[in-house]
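Intended use. Records such as the Thioredoxin entry shown here are meant for training and evaluating sequence-to-structure methods. They are not intended to support clinical decisions.
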Amino acid sequence: MSVTLILILVVVVALVVLITVNYFRMKNAKPVANSKQIKVLNNKNFKAATKRGVALVDFWAPWCAPCKIIAPVVNEIADTQNEFMVAKVNVDHNQQLAQKFKVRNIPTMLILKDGKEAGRIVGVKTKKAILKEVESVMAS
């Protein structure tokens, strides 16, 4: 066998191992909303829950790897503050809400003020960046 062929074989095996490990890690991941402070919103309770005050609403799906990455950050925000509501919406179960707010990528976090969208964060961000956006909305 040539050195090139051996190298290709090693790379392919390494990729298969990485993909397999990540698959089982994601499959066995902890629930996305495991903070007691996070409200789970749906098509029925969304309007009433967000009509007053400021809310950080995380639109997510169980199959979404970036959603699982950002979940501990959202949980920490919910557990360490009480000035605004932190909530989650499963887009697979609440497609009407995702369509209403034009959520095309997940995770997407909406910052609502008295029921109206006042800010939007798309993708994985740091706790500091998320809080900065929420504080900006609260100050306005």
